[in-house]
Amino acid sequence: MRDLRLGRGLTQKGLSERSGVSLSSLRKFEQKGSISLESFLKLALTLGCMDKLIKATEPMESNFSSIDDVLAKDDKKPKRGKHG
Protein backbone atom coordinates (compact mmCIF):
# COMPACT_ATOMS: atom_id res chain seq x y z
CA MET A 1 0.00 0.00 0.00
CA ARG A 2 2.90 2.33 0.74
CA ASP A 3 4.20 1.86 -2.81
CA LEU A 4 0.73 2.55 -4.22
CA ARG A 5 0.44 5.67 -2.09
CA LEU A 6 3.82 6.95 -3.20
CA GLY A 7 3.09 6.04 -6.82
CA ARG A 8 0.02 8.25 -6.69
CA GLY A 9 2.02 11.10 -5.18
CA LEU A 10 0.14 11.04 -1.89
CA THR A 11 1.57 11.84 1.50
CA GLN A 12 0.47 9.84 4.51
CA LYS A 13 -1.57 12.84 5.61
CA GLY A 14 -3.20 13.15 2.19
CA LEU A 15 -4.16 9.47 2.08
CA SER A 16 -5.41 9.66 5.64
CA GLU A 17 -7.68 12.58 4.79
CA ARG A 18 -8.99 11.01 1.57
CA SER A 19 -9.63 7.57 3.08
CA GLY A 20 -10.92 8.52 6.51
CA VAL A 21 -8.25 6.35 8.16
CA SER A 22 -6.48 8.10 11.01
CA LEU A 23 -2.93 9.21 10.34
CA SER A 24 -1.67 7.20 13.32
CA SER A 25 -3.33 4.03 11.99
CA LEU A 26 -1.84 4.59 8.54
CA ARG A 27 1.63 5.16 9.99
CA LYS A 28 1.37 2.05 12.15
CA PHE A 29 0.22 0.04 9.13
CA GLU A 30 3.10 1.19 6.96
CA GLN A 31 5.65 0.55 9.72
CA LYS A 32 4.35 -2.65 11.33
CA GLY A 33 1.69 -4.03 8.98
CA SER A 34 -1.02 -3.88 11.62
CA ILE A 35 -4.43 -2.36 10.78
CA SER A 36 -8.12 -3.12 11.16
CA LEU A 37 -9.91 -4.75 8.25
CA GLU A 38 -12.20 -1.75 7.91
CA SER A 39 -9.26 0.65 7.63
CA PHE A 40 -7.44 -1.68 5.24
CA LEU A 41 -10.46 -1.76 2.95
CA LYS A 42 -10.82 2.03 3.09
CA LEU A 43 -7.20 2.40 2.02
CA ALA A 44 -7.61 -0.16 -0.76
CA LEU A 45 -10.71 1.61 -2.04
CA THR A 46 -9.00 5.00 -1.97
CA LEU A 47 -5.89 3.68 -3.72
CA GLY A 48 -7.94 1.88 -6.36
CA CYS A 49 -6.81 -1.66 -5.64
CA MET A 50 -10.09 -3.27 -4.51
CA ASP A 51 -10.27 -5.31 -7.75
CA LYS A 52 -6.92 -6.92 -6.92
CA LEU A 53 -8.14 -7.77 -3.41
CA ILE A 54 -11.36 -9.27 -4.70
CA LYS A 55 -9.45 -11.34 -7.26
CA ALA A 56 -7.03 -12.53 -4.59
CA THR A 57 -9.90 -13.88 -2.49
CA GLU A 58 -11.60 -15.81 -5.29
CA PRO A 59 -11.53 -19.57 -4.70
CA MET A 60 -8.90 -21.46 -6.65
CA GLU A 61 -9.81 -24.51 -8.67
CA SER A 62 -8.99 -27.71 -6.88
CA ASN A 63 -8.11 -31.18 -8.11
CA PHE A 64 -9.80 -32.56 -5.01
CA SER A 65 -13.51 -33.02 -4.47
CA SER A 66 -13.29 -34.04 -0.82
CA ILE A 67 -10.92 -34.34 2.12
CA ASP A 68 -10.70 -38.06 1.34
CA ASP A 69 -9.10 -37.19 -2.02
CA VAL A 70 -6.51 -35.03 -0.25
CA LEU A 71 -5.69 -37.74 2.27
CA ALA A 72 -5.47 -40.41 -0.43
CA LYS A 73 -2.98 -38.29 -2.36
CA ASP A 74 -0.81 -37.88 0.77
CA ASP A 75 -0.78 -41.66 1.29
CA LYS A 76 0.72 -42.16 -2.18
CA LYS A 77 3.76 -39.96 -1.51
CA PRO A 78 6.92 -41.93 -0.66
CA LYS A 79 7.94 -41.64 2.96
CA ARG A 80 11.36 -40.28 3.81
CA GLY A 81 13.95 -42.99 4.27
CA LYS A 82 11.85 -45.77 2.74
CA HIS A 83 12.82 -47.19 -0.61
CA GLY A 84 10.90 -49.56 -2.77
Automatic annotation (TrEMBL):
At the top level, the lineage of the source is Bacteria
Question: Which residue positions does the secretion signal occupy?
Answer: none
Q: Which residues form the HTH cro/C1-type domain?
A: 1-53
Return any one Pfam family short name.
HTH_3
| Protein name (record) | Helix-turn-helix transcriptional regulator
Q: Which organism is it from?
A: Flagellimonas halotolerans
